[in-house]
Amino acid sequence: MRHILLALAVALGLAAPALAAPPDRTLRIGLREDPDTLDPTLTGSYVGRIVLAGMCDKLFDYDTKLDIVPQLATGYTYKDPTHLILHLRPGVLFQDGEKMDAQAVKYTLTRDLTMPRSLRKGQINDIQSIEVIDPLTVELVLKAPNSALLAQLAGRPGIMLAPKVAEKEGKDFGLHPVCAGPFRFVQRVPQQKIVLERFKRYWDAKAIHFDKVEYIPIVNSAITVDNLKAGTLDLAEYVVPTDVPLVKQDPKLRIAMDTSLAYNGITFNTGNGPAAKTAIGEHASLRRAFELGIDRTALIQVVYDGLYTPIAQANPPSSKFYIPSVVPPKRDIAAAKALIARSGVKTPIPVTLLVPNSPDLLQAAQVIQAMEQPAGFDVKIRAVEFASGMAAARSGDFQAYFIGWSGRADADGNMYSFLHSGYGFNYGHYDNPKVDALLDQAREAPTIAARKAVYAKIWTIVRQDMPGVYLWSPKNIVGLKKTLLGFRQVPDGIIRLQGMRFAK
Amino acid sequence: MQGPIGARLIQLLPTILLVSIIVFALQQLMPGDPAVLLAGDAAGDPHVVAQIRDQLLLNRPIWEQYLHWLFAALHGNLGYSWRLSSPVSALIAQKLPVTLQLSVMAFFFSVVIGVPAGVISAVKRGTAWDWLANAVGLFGLSIPTFWLGIVLILLVSVDLGWLPPSGYVPLAQDPLRSIATTLMPAFVLGNAIAAILMRHTRSAMLVALQQDYVRTARAKGLSERKVVLRHALRNALIPVVTLAGLQLGTLLSGAVLTEQVFDIPGIGKLVVDAVFNRDYPVIQGVVLVTGLLYVLINLATDVLYAVINPRLRGQ
What we know:
heterodimer, A: alpha+beta, six-stranded mixed β-sheet, 21 strands, about 35% helix, about 25% strand, globular, disordered N terminus, B: mainly alpha, 13 helices, about 0% strand
């Protein structure tokens, strides 16, 4: 016994210096999946944006009201609709010590426009040339007016890269990125963690209160909650709705919940190959009847504990482009039946619904299947793995497809590729020249109000054509320790580290 | 002994080549366009997708893509992960030690539990010990790995707080924490193998204990302990070693589910993510390395036969 006590005393003695050590100022953030490459020009994943926010500041950013605010730029002026002047923040350094100036902006935007496999090219393709006026002023000359461009510069194309490093590393830049953000890249072990360390010469250093940040991808949502409860995570960027009560039960944790920009819905095949030649593909009235068969509120209650928001448009209520008059109709079986009767199509009308095989979407599909049956639709569920579903959708091998989109603050990012003919997210090949023209017109409209008026016209047409049913907008549900203070929730779901700190 | 080993080593090359061809063909059959997945939220722009397809040679015939990969592989270049923009060889070098550590620990658990349980069960046939060992074996065989994993996480990590619920710390960084992070997954992974080993050891021991040489050993007056351990077990171990060797290979490639549940960033998790993201170079590279390991483990098993049973030496 004496030996055991002695051993304990020794162990405690060894532990004493650790107990006396300064508090660990490492923030551990759980991600729902492992990001792809960390090269801002090449990345295409949502969680990648979260990690980049820790390392890389952008020319502009969004505040909690989704207003565009200066970050690496201090402001902008339009000389005319095709000449955008950017004023840069003085005294900003990249993490390798290079100056963030007009040349760096020119270098980065040129890289985005010319690098093979660049995923940014399509977002800023309207830039014809980039002129350096002086070290802190850049002029972007546009091919045509584009109101969505500023929003793009508040996204990944607005991330500025250290030119010397980017030039030297080429396609390997994503292995050790260098930007002008609050934390510099230290290490990445794919599927395990991404480690960042505080950049002491960050231009807004006073807003940073951590020494290190670790991003830890955990795919299983239950394990994410376990890690939060066990204290091995300080913050989980996403908690599934059904796990919210588990987090709330824990006295050390809290839930931060806010509207998001994302949406989910069903898109119909109206023109993509032979599979479009179905009753639901050919009759807009049947698609409207299909919508009337769905009770969105009940659906959300069953699958998402009532936490998500019913919608009938691509821009959720949090968006500046939300049209309040476009609201989801109530479930109306009689009206649905009347529409079907007028179409002359015999019931039950078969509809095969292609669903990515995630548990919540499958459950939602089953609820829809049950809801549509009284209206006269015989919904069959075809569950497929995500990539296979996307391949089927693109090749036209579907009648109806459950889609989800992470959402953008600017309406263009939520609508253009989805509703314009010839674009990749328009899986059903919906083709209405009036809608195409209006989408192009919205890009050129100078103000949000003017653009909103154009989008209202689009929704009037789209509600009639019904190429898809918009169902719900998820919430950004973040689980975090109560001792973590200063967390600002922005509808884009990106975790901004400025101002966050541990309670003393 | 050099002859058979040399022959097996020569067989290794066509085996691996065949595996690489089959995997290359199979991954082409998987639905899903890698270019679309890589484009992510930029896939709405058809020009972006077309450019990626062009860059990754996805527009070329399959045989040309394969030869391109094979030529590079023969020069020691397994290519770049399309998704992570990282060399495949570096990814494998990073992940393989993790899976090896997990597999070796799981193997240790399975042998330490399975073989003694099998021996006791056979020696004490028909007693409560036999019944208990069989019940434990049945439990190990029938319980799903993912369920056991989640239950253990809830019990050991969340409720008791004894071990971390998931994640991994490299052995070189902090040996104690490394073992702490892999203890539960290794137990879960080893559990099912232990049950298999237990049942095979029991059968083999039951046969061995009825052999003439065992009777002779007993007649010579040897203690029961020596009879069981030195005479019966040594002979019974030959089929068990074969099985254990195969199971070690299975552990290496089969840790997929356990790595998912415990978020262990090993080779299994790497290949699962690669499949979901259609990251062909990673799939191809991992299969190549796993196949190579599998063949080498089988070879090592053959060598081990001879060590255990001198009669097999020279064959």
